[in-house]
Write a structure and sequence with these properties.
Distance between the termini of chain A: 23 Å
CATH class of one domain in chain B: Alpha Beta
Number of domains of chain A: 2
Helix content of chain B: 40-55%
Mean pLDDT of chain A: 91
Shape of chain A: globular
Strand content of chain B: 15-25%
Structural class of chain B: alpha+beta
Largest interface: A-B, 27 and 30 residues
Strand order of the largest sheet of chain A: 5-4-6-3-7
Mean pLDDT of chain B: 88
Oligomer: heterodimer
Largest sheet of chain A: 5 strands, mixed
Number of helices of chain A: 12
Largest sheet of chain B: 7 strands, antiparallel
Low-confidence stretches of chain B: none
């Protein structure tokens, strides 16, 4: 919406939004200087930094975790410990660190079934549970005929793993050279989100038109669900937190989970990782 | 207008016929509408069910054929000594030998053939007129995690994938039938890979699109997870599930229907979709676990019925209009003679009995009415003639009666005060006959300077006979009294004279009194008459003591007695006939002795004339508008020393 409404233009910015492909992910694009700013999950970003990509967080759109294990009520799985011995679908493409850490910390032994993108294996009963996003796959399951009262969602945030997700990242060198430009970019981007929250139908029209142009199958009711949930996830826990800023304790929690699970080796200070660009 | 409707017989007949016809029409049309509606509903439903079942049958043929092909090659795969090259050839053979199969892959588990590396999945498919074979596994397409591989592997049975667009390939919607195959080793049956058969759904969507029910009724197919595979609105295909569509159009009913469809059930239901009430029939495609739904709007189902009903109503209204016109015309023609007869009746009423009546040739009620009227006309002529004669005779009699009354009234004294030279006595009397001539009488006269005779009587019966009897009585009294001072003698003389030759047994109640003007002694004889009232100047009025003597004229041998009583100065006497005390009002209540006495008591200070006038007024007040039934006669006198 920031692009469509000319908020970038108002900040004298020429922004080109590109989508990562299966072969070239966003981190690679950033590392290769093909993109100035990318959107990444916090977990992915910390892991990438640990692996040598010198990226920094310049804005945090998501403030809450949307991750959950979805199970069918008939399996009577209500807590994490009920997952012990179960087959759990998990994305093959990543974002698996937090669910795995949670399962490990609860001393559960589960069979992880890597899944590419659909929820069909779960729907057909091939697995007992599946990690899904509250704003996306959960609604896909409901839209496949399961009523919410037939499902048992187990939210990861309920177990102290409220790890925020989407954030904006750039290389440290870009931050040093184009700090003012990036400030304007983050400001315009957040303005775009604010506009989307206030102009729901217009935003949905824009998204639907874009998806149609790109031949991506979707429907308005699912996009509406996604927009509403994403807007909810952007609200910080504490009133003192500026919307769009990464909270230090959230960073430290995520970092610790990754260290504990041996996903990363070094502990990078919060100040090195995050540079607040939004004015207080 | 309503008044006119009520007045006109023809309009009333038309209105009644019209109301009956409308009622009949409503009943008939209602029955027709309900019956037709049910018939249409049943026929359309039957058609929808039949067309659905036929479509499902057609689809099942191809889908199950795919399963049979798969089963055969799985058997072959598991039996043969699998070698990579022969596997590649096999995919090509399958595609070549089975024209319904768009593509075929035999995908193996990682490193199944070590010499072929991590991925081994030969895939053959039609591209244009040729068959192309290539490997589909690589780091960017790790087929092990695709639904078509992973799901049948996990569920250890065949699986129809969700339909998908084959972009860049056939550009059609494809559904893949995947079946796991196994190798047998010492450890037992080991999963080896998946055989897939791609089925282009072009034929299927064409077949579904060709289903037409009524004008905009259509068929649609949803996959086992609710994805819309075929629908007249291409925007929905592969974009929406039946559940997202239900959410968009805000139809919880459709969500319920969708869940029932996925459960493999078949049903006929009605639901509100957007702003239209739709009838829906759904039935499963058992092989693929998909479900077919046919939908048609209720409005269209009954459209023909509505237009037929509309035409029927229009025709009926036209028919009713025509009926009103004709009935009005016929009725008016039929009752036209009534108007002439009515006009004639007016003329007859004016006395023109020779008014001509209309000629009626038909032998019906109208003719009877005309004949009856004609008869009445003749009878009236005769009757009026008779009436004229009777009236003339009556007028003559009435004239004679008037003369008789004048004579009768002339016979009784009417000059008051009667004796201006006799100060001891003042007297007033009144006779008001009920009919032209009455049977009451009164009289008074001086016998000599010291005696005054007065009398009052009431002849039985009324009219001329009574008046004649009264005249005779009065004449006899006048001829008898001057010679007598004994009231008994006078009355006895009168009785004998009247009783002689009294064939008709008439009689007179009679009171006769002679008052000595010097002494105030009253000698009197009461022959069956009402007791007179003495009005004392210093005490309450009272009735005379009554005697039980009979009226005169009945028996000539009857001997009447006389009585005496002293009348004090300023005492008054009142004599009256029963016409006063028995005067009736509308409620048949009599004026009565009691009320008479009350009236007298109230007016006792008056002179005789005042008392009589007061009583007359009081009686009039009592009677009201009721007709005077009897003669009213009173005589009052005052004795003044």
């Amino acid at each position: 919406m920031a692009q469509k409404m000319g908020f970038y233009e108002q900040e004298n910015l020429v922004v080109n939004i590109e989508h990562p492909s299966a072969s070239i992910n966003a981190t690679t694009k950033l590392a290769d200087h093909e993109a100035d700013v990318i959107s990444l999950f916090l977990v992915t970003a910390i892991t990438a930094r640990d692996q040598g990509v010198n990226l920094v967080n310049i804005g945090q759109t998501s403030q809450q975790s949307a991750l959950l294990f979805i199970t069918k009520k008939e399996h009577n799985i209500k807590t994490i410990s009920d997952l012990n011995g179960k087959k759990i679908g998990i994305w093959k493409s990543g974002f698996d660190e937090i669910p795995k850490a949670l399962i490990d910390n609860n001393n559960c032994s589960v069979e992880w079934v890597p899944i590419l993108s659909t929820v069909n294996l779960f729907l057909i009963g091939g697995i007992d549970a599946m990690t899904v996003m509250w704003y996306n796959e959960y609604d896909v399951i409901v839209n496949s005929g399961f009523d919410p009262n037939e499902l048992n969602p187990v939210f990861i945030s309920d177990y102290g793993y409220n790890v925020p997700e989407d954030g904006l990242y750039c290389l440290n060198e870009t931050l040093q050279t184009k700090k003012e430009t990036l400030k304007r970019f983050v400001k315009a981007s957040m303005k775009g989100w604010d506009y989307a929250a206030l102009h729901r139908e217009e935003t949905l029209d824009t998204v639907m038109a874009l998806m149609k142009r790109k031949h991506i199958p979707s429907n308005r009711s699912h996009q509406a669900w996604m927009l509403d949930r994403i807007i909810e996830l952007q609200v910080p826990d504490e009133k003192s937190t500026i919307k769009g800023e990464l909270v230090e304790k959230d960073y430290k929690l995520t970092q610790q989970i990754l260290l504990n699970g041996n996903y990363i080796k070094t502990k990078i200070p919060f100040s090195d990782f995050h540079t607040p660009l939004l004015l207080k | 207008m309503i008044l006119n409707l009520k007045k006109s017989l023809s309009t009333r007949i038309v209105v009644n016929i019209l109301l009956f016809c409308i009622l009949l029409f409503v009943i008939c049309l209602g029955t027709f509408y309900l019956f037709s509606k049910r018939t249409i509903e049943k026929k359309t439903t039957d058609y929808a069910i039949e067309i659905s079942k036929n479509t499902v049958l057609e689809a099942e043929k191809i889908l199950s054929n795919t399963e049979v092909i798969s089963k055969n090659y799985i058997w072959l795969l598991e039996k043969m000594n699998m070698q990579p090259d022969s596997i590649s050839n096999l995919t090509r053979t399958i595609v070549a030998n089975n024209p319904t199969i768009q593509g075929c892959a035999i995908a193996f588990e990682p490193n199944f053939f070590p010499q072929k590396g991590y991925y081994f999945s030969p895939y053959s498919c039609h591209i244009g007129d040729s068959i192309v074979t290539h490997q589909i596994g690589n780091p960017e397409y790790e087929y092990f995690y695709m639904d078509w591989f992973q799901i049948p592997k996990f569920i250890r049975s065949s699986y129809w994938t969700e339909p998908y667009y084959d972009e860049g390939g056939s550009n059609n919607i494809i559904a893949t039938f995947s079946t796991p195959f196994y190798t047998t080793s010492e450890a037992g049956k080991v999963f080896a890979g998946i055989l897939t058969l791609d089925l282009s759904l072009e034929w299927f969507t064409e077949m579904i699109s060709s289903v037409k029910i009524l004008q905009s009724g259509f068929a649609s197919v949803i996959s086992q997870h609710g994805t819309i595979v075929s629908h007249p609105d291409s925007e929905l295909i592969m974009h929406q599930t039946i559940f997202t569509y239900a959410k968009e159009i805000k139809s919880p009913d459709l969500r319920t229907i969708g869940r029932d469809m996925l459960a493999g059930n078949s049903n006929f239901v009605s639901a509100q979709l957007r702003d239209r009430q739709m009838h829906l029939f759904y039935t499963p495609l058992p092989t693929s676990k998909w479900s077919l739904i046919v939908a048609f709007p209720e409005k269209e189902m009954y459209a023909s019925l509505k237009s037929t009903t509309f035409i029927l109503i229009a025709l009926t209204l036209f028919g009713l209009g025509l009926l009103i016109f004709l009935v009005q015309k016929i009725v008016r023609r039929q009752i036209a003679p009534l108007r002439v007869i009515a006009a004639s009746a007016k003329e007859v009423a004016k006395g023109n009995f020779s008014t001509r009546l209309p000629e009626i040739k038909t032998e019906d009620e109208m003719r009877h009415l005309r004949d009856s009227f004609c008869y009445m006309q003749k009878q009236l002529t005769v009757y009026i003639e008779d009436l004229k004669n009777t009236t003339s005779a009556k007028e003559k009699i009435e004239s004679e009666l008037r003369i008789a009354r004048e004579i009768q009234m002339g016979m009784i004294p009417k000059i008051f005060p009667p004796f201006p030279d006799t100060p001891q006595i003042d007297l007033y009397a009144m006779l008001q006959p009920a009919k032209e001539v009455g049977g009451d009488l009164y009289d008074f006269f001086l016998i000599d300077n010291d005696h005054m005779c007065f009398a009052i009587g009431d002849v039985s019966g009324k009219g001329v006979p009574a008046s004649l009897f009264m005249a005779v009585t009065r004449t006899l009294l006048r001829s008898t009294a001057p010679k007598q001072l004994s009231t008994a003698n006078i009355v006895n003389t009168l009785n004998r004279s009247l009783a002689a030759g009294n064939e008709s047994s008439m009689f007179v109640t009679f009171f006769l009194g002679i008052i000595n003007l010097k002494t105030g002694i009253l000698t009197y004889t009461n022959a069956g008459h009402n007791p007179p009232i003495i009005i004392h100047s210093d005490a309450e009025p009272e009735f005379f003591e009554t005697t039980d003597q009979i009226p005169i004229g009945l028996f000539d041998s009857y001997i009447y007695r006389q009585s005496k009583r002293e009348i004090h100065a300023m005492d008054k006497l009142l004599l009256y006939t029963d016409g006063i005390t028995e005067a009736e009002n509308a409620e048949k209540a009599l004026y009565s002795d009691h009320r008479l006495m009350q009236c007298i008591a109230k007016n006792k200070q008056h002179h005789p004339r005042g008392i009589i006038e007061a009583i007359t007024e009081d009686v009039k007040l009592h009677v009201g508008h009721n007709e005077q039934s009897d003669d009213l006669t009173m005589l009052s006198l005052i004795y003044q020393v």
